[in-house]
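Our preliminary data section would be incomplete without showing what the modeling component actually yields. Below, a chain of 359 amino acids is followed by its predicted structure, encoded as tokens that our downstream tools consume directly.
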Amino acid sequence: MKLKDKLVRLSIRGKRTIVISDIHGELELFKKLLEQVDFSRDDILIVNGDILDKGRNSLGTMKYIRQLTGAGNVYVIEGNCDRFFDELEEEWLYPYMDYRYTVAHEFLKETGTTLTDYKTQHDFAEAVLDVYSDYQTWFRNLPTAIETEDYLFVHAGIEDDYLETPREVALTMPEFYLSNHHLDKKVVVGHYPAANFAEAGLYSHGIKVNDERRIIALDGGNQVKESGQLNALLIETDGTLTMQAVDALESALVIQDFEVTLQEPHTFTFPDYNIRVMDGDDYFTFAEHVSTGTQFMVKTEWIIEKEGQTYLKDDYTDYFVDVKAGEEVKVVGQYAGYTLIKKESVVGWVPEEVLDTSS
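Predicted structure:
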């Protein structure tokens, strides 16, 4: 099946349009974001794929969004994680459940059962579809892309001849933000966290916009990144773009100014974590990123060893954030002497004494 087989054309010029991607079962965050952007019946809402999986309430999220579509101003595009009801008998499902919270876990909780209550995976699949076959049909009928006067909305990416893009590619293409395309419109994608595309060395979960390549990357890393967020792209009635976001991180008050006058930040993201370590202490260790040869200071707690190799334990940035007393920031994690924070979607470090984290 090709993109052209599941394409919806829609007129949005002159209408305020809100685009949200990769909700991943976080219903309360989604509702909070809709409230924050003041979503109303006068707006158009486009959900750009991945309603399901990873978050706490995928079943509730899909029910709520399907209900929203009844008003006639809400449109949903399929994402790769939204194929759950078609993948109930895949061999990878049970092993995947060992390390990811899934719709399957929610169904078991809802029905008060465990996997051992079903003799075979086929029996489990039948039990799920006895309840949710109607949603399986709803997801199957979602478009792969929505094309408007100035935009193409698709979950992951397109090939050169966008209409001939295989559906599987449109749902799973990685790193499309770094690609080029021939369409004379902006292509808006989710799927791959925008934070993976470090610009100016910064680790930012904010929406990435490349006007030259005509690509916008929406995915704020919600439920995928520790410091992730749920992003909304707002296409205003005059065509200008604004952005808002929400997350579930705790806030902290800055109680003293902190500023770094000169730094060259570096960010390393999944899956390129291999490093060589040199001198260090309990706070920071001097290291070299193997694939790029970049030398940098890494927070010592971020270093792990596995099978004789040394790695960063997760995405890492060595950026120090400038903050002023009276500001509020989000706390990602507290470590020896320093706190990892997020300010305006950008993640970085501050000394622990500049924050009041008592609340």
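The first strand starts at residue 7 and ends at 9. The two ends are 53 Å apart (CA to CA). Preliminary results of this kind motivate Aim 1 of the renewal.
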